Task: inverse folding
């Protein structure tokens, strides 16, 4: 098991895009645009690997001075509940702290609220619909 920062455009990045497509986009009938993927070169990209196989991923996007947004978190189907997501979030938080960020925010799918609450996040604001799915804003001070 290895947690890594993924380099945009690398083989690991290609695996990350494929996993996010399978878990997050395909079920909603959505694709990634080339422009959307190009913008990701400015983000912090993270992967959880078993050997050379990507089993989970997420990214951090700087949104304001001292604040990053956790996005595009995905874990291979059938491997949820095995600690991969938790390890990824903790790794991302540690990298964010090392880079002097003070706060992480996210648009969390409603179904994932209990998972993030266990990691110390709290909701802020009302439920809203994003990409046809109920979400809430969640945040955590680092």
Result:
């Amino acid at each position: 098991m290895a947690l890594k920062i993924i380099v945009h455009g690398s083989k690991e990045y290609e695996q990350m895009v494929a996993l996010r497509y399978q878990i997050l986009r395909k079920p909603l009938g959505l694709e990634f645009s080339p422009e959307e993927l190009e913008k990701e070169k400015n983000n912090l990209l993270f992967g959880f690997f078993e050997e050379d196989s990507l089993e989970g991923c997420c990214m951090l996007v700087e949104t304001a001075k001292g604040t990053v947004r956790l996005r595009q978190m995905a874990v291979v189907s059938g491997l949820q509940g095995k600690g991969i997501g938790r390890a990824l979030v903790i790794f991302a938080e540690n990298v964010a702290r090392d880079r002097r960020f003070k706060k992480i925010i996210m648009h969390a799918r409603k179904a994932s609220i209990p998972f993030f609450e266990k990691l110390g996040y709290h909701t802020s604001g009302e439920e809203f619909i994003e990409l046809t799915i109920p979400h809430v804003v969640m945040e955590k001070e680092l």
